[in-house]
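Go through this chain for my students:
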Amino acid sequence: MSRLKITALMVAALLAVLAAPLLFPPTQDTAPPITHGMPWQIDLPTPGASRVFGLTLGGAKPSTLSDAQRAFPELLKLALLAPPEQPLALEAYFESVSIGPLSGKLVLTVAATPAELGAMRDKAAKTDHLETGIRKFVLNEADRQRAESLPLAGIVFIPAARLDESIILQRFGAPAERIRQGETLEHFLYPNKGLDLVLDRKGREVLQYVAPAEFPRLRAPLGK
């Protein structure tokens, strides 16, 4: 092969490389990674809505289960739960997540109508009976995919590290109300942030988040 032909082939190859981005443009990630903040960093994007861990509760565009999976790389487990004498609940949870220097368990409640939940139960791929008396239904693949597009109704974070009163007041500020429950539990209520922080002097603390507009459903079981 002559030097002229070799040169022509090299030029053709170079042009092909340069033209490749035009012929096959790189795919754009339409859903950028979610950046989540600390448990006390609660934003209020619109009236009645809140945003924590990079996830929005309430409002016109609440986050979905799929958004939660993008926010945390850990394995997400999903199940339909039927507690004794209580309504069905669709919950997803991460056994352990890392949020900055903190770690803990994250539980997500998925919003769905009773009819939707009943249909999922009837078509469940598997049913387990837990020692607590709760029946656990494993969704079939079609319902699991549908669940990923449903909005989140609530978030529960159970930190591995212990909290105490001084840390709570320093990080979250003074609550609107404090309610004791039994001998060991005390609720620190932040209705404008949609947060009920439960301090357990003999166990692990629990942080329950809902949209501020939905806070009455957290407050109601606590009585006057």
